[in-house]
Amino acid sequence: MNNTIELDDVEMGAEEAKRRSAVAHCRFCQAPLRHTFVDLGMSPLCESYLTAEQLNRMEAFYPLHVMVCQECYLVQLGDYVSPEHIFTEYAYFSSYSDSWLKHSWGYVDMISQRLALGGRSLVVELASNDGYLLQYFVQKGIPALGVEPAGNVAKVAEEKGVPTLIEFFGRQTARKMVAVGQAADLVIGNNVLAQVPDLNDFVGGIRILLKPGGVATLEFPHLERLMAENQYDTIYHEHFSYFSLIAVEKIFAAHGLVLFDADEIPTHGGSIRIYVRHVEDCSKPISPAVTSLRERELTIGLDRAETYATFSEQVMESKRALLELLIRVRRERKRVVGYGAPGKGNTLLNYCGIRTDLLEFTVDRNPYKHGRFLPGTHIPIYPPERIGSCRPDYILILPWNLKDEIVVQLAYTREWGAKFIVPIPVARVLD
Ligand SMILES: [Zn+2]
Predict the structure, then answer these.
(1) Residues 6 or more apart from 180 whose CB is under 8 A from it?
(2) 246 C-alpha vs ligand 1 centroid, how far in Å?
(3) Which of 3, 10, 96, 310 is 20 to 30 A from residue 84's alpha carbon, by CA?
(4) CA of residue 79 to ligand 1 center, whole Å
């Protein structure tokens, strides 16, 4: 079980070479992409954790160069890696975060009441992962179906009693589902929109799958927060797009879908949950939440190219501050280890050039990662108990979005006076 790219896979076909050498075009509106948002250099695929035997082999690195479309303001990565390489053996299991499960349970409770879902409804989740969310609908007796391209995670969902189609979602899959009576009252897409290579096919598929009076809800990290808080480490090859509300509205409108409500939620450093309906369904008026969010984005200038041009320098300064802090404490002969081995950690460590010289090892609760090494930086990953036995002076929290939960879990480290470091927006030691 690994998704490290072998050399054979790197020798791309003629079609692939042509696709990559051409000027990149916007994955939504097809306009040529000419403006850099941020260039994080070359990075390995962030979920390709290495075994000890792989450490002495060549590793594939791809550009993490993010562009912004000057027509629709969709912030996006170029087509550097084909999606088949990324998602088929995805190591991420949603169920490993307590706060994420709590968030999911709260959502299921809220939405099943709001839409009056029951035994005759059908809920479909796109990129349903290991059934972390749909399991709560199943517990309520609401029929649920997952669509998940990664076979290994889909299998875990099935074991939880969550029926799961192993497919990439798009128009074709949606048509097949509707043909066998699987049109949905509720379509859910949490943190999947960013990972969709063909946005038009995916959103077009939602229109097909959704019953005439149905609702789709999608959650995605908010670009406004990414920019305001230097969350450059949420940029990785698995995330093709980074959304503002104004860009998302345009994309859904192009497919006959309307955003009629929006919630701002704290997950993944600040996300938006949008509520979507068919343009023909006038029973659901557009809420003031949508209007005010749109106005806020226009006020900060998300519809102007110059607003995006300032981000690069912010990111470079954040890198300098983190390195300065780590170099200082290492020179004082302090021991520094990491907590977590999330995808975002790999972007951060590779971009900043942090290896075992600055971070001895990291730990993670996911047993799949134990005994493996972070891609690119080759930092070893151990079970969390390692922190107790080695008693480090500093713990760098890589999944900073779970910082509060992690500080509670690691309260015992206060016993020997360990301190926590969060890397962004600007590196700092927690009090
Ligand atoms: Zn565009």
Answers:
(1) none
(2) 12
(3) 96
(4) 14
